């Protein structure tokens, strides 16, 4: 059961929202078999984004990244299921859309690394950190009271 509860943090970035890709992303994760356990739309504050991207603070593109991520609302989500972190990354494609295969979200919908439309956690540890940064535990749903046939 433990691995079925794995959760990943997925966020549709401002360009993904502006371009109307919210439904497409949700459809892909939902039909793949993951469970949506939390979702909110927000104009992310700079301090939240600085925490979220703390590992990149010294990179030359960091100011551009902050400007991009605060340019409009984002859709923050938590998806749950077996292998959610690793499979989520496979579904996203590579950081640089130019390296992303067709069939992945970045491979299908974008061309520029600085406008790559979606975020996904890169490890279970970073997923847990990111989820607690963006959501309160009480904001997340549990499917544990649902019939066993719901879980796979
Ligand atoms: P990922 O989003 O695939 O986990 P990352 O954590 O290395 O990639 O970087 C976070 C975001 O920063 C990435 O989605 C887009 C931006 N970024 C990364 N490398 C970049 C670069 N060389 N130039 C511009 N933006 C970059
Ligand atoms: Mg990353």
Please tell me about this protein's structure.
This protein is of the alpha+beta class and 152 residues long. 37% of the residues lie in helices and 16% in strands. The chain has a single domain, classed as Alpha-Beta Plaits (2-Layer Sandwich). The protein has helices spanning 14-18, 22-32, 46-52, 62-69, 84-92, 105-109, 124-134, and strands at 7-12, 35-42, 74-80, 118-120. Strands 2-3-1-4 form a four-stranded antiparallel beta sheet. The model has no long low-confidence stretch (mean pLDDT 94). Its EC number is 2.7.4.6. ATP binds at residues 13, 61, 89, 95, 106, 116.
Number of strands: 4
Beta percentage is: 15-25%
Q: Could you tell me the CATH topology label.
A: Alpha-Beta Plaits
| Class from helix and strand fractions | alpha+beta
> Please, how many domains?
1
- How far is it from the N-terminal to the C-terminal residue, by CA? 10 Å
Reported for the largest beta sheet, the result is: 4 strands, antiparallel
Arithmetic mean pLDDT: 94
CATH homologous superfamily label: Nucleoside diphosphate kinase-like domain
- In spatial order, strands of the major sheet run 2-3-1-4
CATH architect. name: 2-Layer Sandwich
Give the CATH level 1 class: Alpha Beta
Rg from C-alpha positions? Answer: 15 Å
SSE order in H/E notation? Answer: EHHEHHEHHEH
Model regions low in confidence, pLDDT < 50 over at least 5 residues:
none
- Quickly count the helices: 7
Fraction of helical residues: 25-40%
Catalogue the ligands: 2'-deoxyadenosine-5'-diphosphate, magnesium ion
Oligomer: single chain
Morphology call: globular
């Amino acid at each position: 059961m433990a691995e079925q509860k794995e959760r990943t943090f997925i966020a549709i970035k401002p360009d993904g929202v502006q371009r109307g890709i919210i439904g497409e992303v949700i459809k892909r994760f939902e039909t793949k078999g993951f469970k949506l356990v939390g979702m909110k739309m927000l104009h992310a504050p700079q301090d939240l984004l600085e925490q979220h991207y703390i590992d990149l603070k010294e990179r030359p593109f960091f100011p551009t990244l902050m400007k991009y991520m605060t340019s409009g609302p984002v859709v923050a989500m938590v998806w749950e299921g077996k292998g959610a972190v690793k499979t989520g990354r496979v579904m996203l494609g590579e950081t640089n859309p130019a390296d992303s295969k067709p069939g992945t979200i970045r491979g299908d919908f974008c061309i520029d690394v600085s406008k790559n439309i979606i975020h996904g956690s890169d490890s279970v540890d970073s997923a847990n950190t990111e989820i607690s940064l963006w959501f309160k535990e009480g904001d997340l749903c549990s499917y544990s009271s649902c019939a066993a046939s719901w879980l796979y």
